[in-house]
Amino acid sequence: MRPAPLFEKTAQWFHRANASLLGTLPCAQGCTHCCIGLFPVTILDRQEIQRGLRTLPDEQRERIERTAAGQITVLTAAAPQLNTNRFIDQWPEEKSEQLIEQFDTWPCPALEQDGSCGLYEFRPLACRSMGVPPDDGVCVGGACAVQTSVPLIRLSKTIREEENHLAGMEAEEIEVLRRHEGAEGEELFLPYAFLPDSGTR
Q1: Residue 59 falls within a domain, yes or no?
Q2: How many domains, in total, are found in the chain?
Q3: Which domain holds residue 52?
Q4: What percent of the chain has pLDDT over 70?
Q5: Is 201 part of any domain?
Q6: Looking at the predicted structure, is the pLDDT value of residue 199 above 70?
Q7: What percent of the chain is predicted at pLDDT more than 90?
Q8: What is the CA radius of gyration of the chain?
Q9: pLDDT > 70? residue 146
């Protein structure tokens, strides 16, 4: 089973961006910095993760789901409102940030002991594009704490335009999926994406 088209296109965009920066990005297997910590994903990411879980051996899938379920138990104790609505779109930003900081040492449920991703081919969109330095047109910054220096070369206008196009495609596909599922929101914390019963609330 191949990743969904948007997910493949995003990975291909990252490879082109990295090549244009002469391969200077530190992102590679073994670097797990962005695999640690709580962060939000979308219902589109959840759909792709669920597709990936169905391709795994039962033992591996169940282990990943157990890890996610354990994290959710702790999350709902810290934020009981997640028991009735697991979407966080309408949360005050400070509330989300509080939980993200509180659980910043949590590994992604799919992170394997050897530092590899158990769902690499079906990883979220953010995981596929993470590492490319943000550029506001004036300054280029580091994408993460591991990226202690930024490339001297800036990404071309064409690659940045493609990045914006992919973001537009993501927004459109999320809206289509939200309407199809009747979901009450678009964003949820990562552990919920690994459980098949995340549903529409």
Answers
A1: yes
A2: 1
A3: 5-19+33-192
A4: 89
A5: no
A6: no
A7: 72
A8: 17
A9: no
